[in-house]
Amino acid sequence: MGLQLSRRQFVGSTAALSLSALIPRGMLAASSGTQRVIVRTDAEIGVVRPEFHSHFAEHLGSCVYGGLWVGKKSPIPNLEGYRKQAIEYLRELGVPVLRWPGGCYADDYHWRDGIGPVEQRPKRVNIHWGGYVEDGSFGTHEFMGLCRLLGAEPYFAGNVGSGSPRELRDWIEYCNMPSGSTLAEERIKNGAPEPFRVRYWGVGNENWGCGGWMRPEVYANLYRQFSVYVRQYGGTQPYLVASGPNGNDRKWTRGFMDTLDGGAPGGLSMHYYEGGPDRATEYSADHLGQQLSIFKRVEEAITEQRTLLDGYRDGHKIGLILDEWGVWDKIPEEDEKRYGKLWMQSTMRSAVAAGLGLNIFNRQADKLFMCNIAQIVNVLQSLLLTDGPEGKSCIRTTTYHAFALFKPHRSKTAVRIETQDSSPLGISVSASRAEKELVITFVNPRHDADFEIDCTIQGSSAREGKAQILHDPDWNACNTFENPNRIIPQTHPLTVEGSRLRMDLPRLSVATVTLNTA
Ligand code: AHR
Questions:
Q1: Which tens digit of pLDDT belongs to each residue from 364-417?
Q2: d(CA 23, ligand 1 centre) in Å
Q3: Which residue's CA is minimally distant from atom 8 of ligand 1?
Q4: Secondary structure of 259-309 in the HEC alphabet?
Q5: Distance 205 CA to ligand 1 centre (A)
Q6: What is the DSSP letter of 163?
């Protein structure tokens, strides 16, 4: 594929202004590999909500069973049934919000199958993900226990496709009503005297596809009906998330909003996967470029869907939620047989993809409410991998480390940046600040070019700084059970002189610079 990048093109996103207006001519004639970047600390975008770093756990393959939940009697070290090593790694990273139980599974899940004595729970077939029999041992209480251990806010995806308004309203009452009603007393009898206070409720999932294959008008009418029966109990006001578009499908969003005709859900969920035809560890250079280029379209989708929503009465109040995103590579059958359905390695390429996505969320911080990568353990672009559901090993993927590098942005205010190159594989940058700290993340998605960063900080100057980098020149390199720490963040040299910072950014790298500013 053509990787001829023009160094004279300037970023055209809404988060950028013209660089040429701000730096003297001549300076723009950068030497090969030099990337000039301007961070405008005085131009605020919005808060980097910690929710941009949220996660998703589906009853799929070995994500829940064997990944997060091994059961109390397992020989695998566990905390009351939860895989100990997974909990420790995830606690360290911090999981702001965790979405569950699907995915496609959500619209075939009946919550009553997952409460009460475990031996009495019915066994159901997981029709979407391999037709295996689910014993329901991980249900509402077990999920809430997981959220408590992780310090995560729960996000339940309700069933519209094969469920009913009554089923959803009852699940909410069961979770949130403090006491007194039959459903609240049932929860108390099942071991939870305090209400769960669940705020986020998805009204179905991908109802244009596995969630009922509906037309947007049909789904909108169902949304209207379901939402009437959703109430607050004990002061917990539900935040409803409507099923939104597949990628940047404007027809779906328009059809939904037109039919809704007034009123607004709390949020609208868009899903955007970045597919690729190769096995994760066997990417060709061409396919690497094609997959990473998709992120440009993700950014466009965010701005276009936001604009579309804002055009409706009360549309500006709807939070745009990207609650499934991430790379989706070819998954060989032998890997699935060995480790579980949709089990996928994360490579240096995946870490770069994570960095591109997380930089976009910062740059579009004013347009987004929440983002949940798919999925947290063992499925697609996961943060952790185990060697199958029975395996004792649990390792952190390159994607985990990319997320860790973005953690310093959480709750800071994103500010505008300018770069020279707006092409899909140009350098990707975002920045945020709070008080006297400025955080900048750089991603070099090129497999064939090393960059030298020449960054000007406009609006303040830095006293000192430090950098961490995740890098491997081999885009197919990954952390394995044999070599779990092959790719981990390393300290990286940088030069800070007042309002200027210089640093090398090798091919295929994600780097975070933290500066103390004056
Ligand atoms: O994340 C895997 C699947 O992808 C989910 O179940 C579904 O919502 C999406 O199509």
A1: 999 999 999 999 999 999 999 999 889 999 999 999 999 999 999 999 999 999
A2: 45
A3: 103
A4: HHCCCCCCEEEEEEEEEEEEEHHHCCHHHHHHHHHHHHHHHHHHHHHHHHH
A5: 9
A6: -
Query: What's the 325 CA to ligand 1 centre distance in angstroms?
Result: 9
Token digits of residue 410: 């959480």
DSSP, collapsed to helix, strand or coil, labels residue 2 as coil
Residue type, 234: G
pTM of structure? 0.94
Of 450, 395, 409, 410, the C-alpha closest to 427 is 450
d(CA 383, CA 98): 13
Residue located nearest, by CA, to atom 6 of ligand 1: 103
SS (HEC) of 169-200: HHHHHHHHCCCCCHHHHHHHHCCCCCCCCCCE
Which SS3 state, helix, strand or coil, does residue 106 take?
helix
Label the pairing between strands 267-279 and 239-246.
parallel
Spatial distance between the Cα atoms of 288 and 446, rounded to a whole number of angstroms: 9
**Which atom number of ligand 1 is nearest to the Cα of residue 105?**
6
58 labelled catalytic: no
Q: How many residues does the chain have?
A: 518
pLDDT digits (tens, 9 = 90+) for 244-291: 999 999 999 999 999 999 879 999 999 999 999 999 999 999 999 999
79's enclosing H/E stretch is strand 78-79
Coil, strand or helix: which one is 31? coil
What DSSP state is assigned to residue 30?
A: P
Per-residue model confidence as pLDDT tens digits over 299-350: 999 999 999 999 999 999 999 999 999 999 999 999 999 999 999 999 999 9
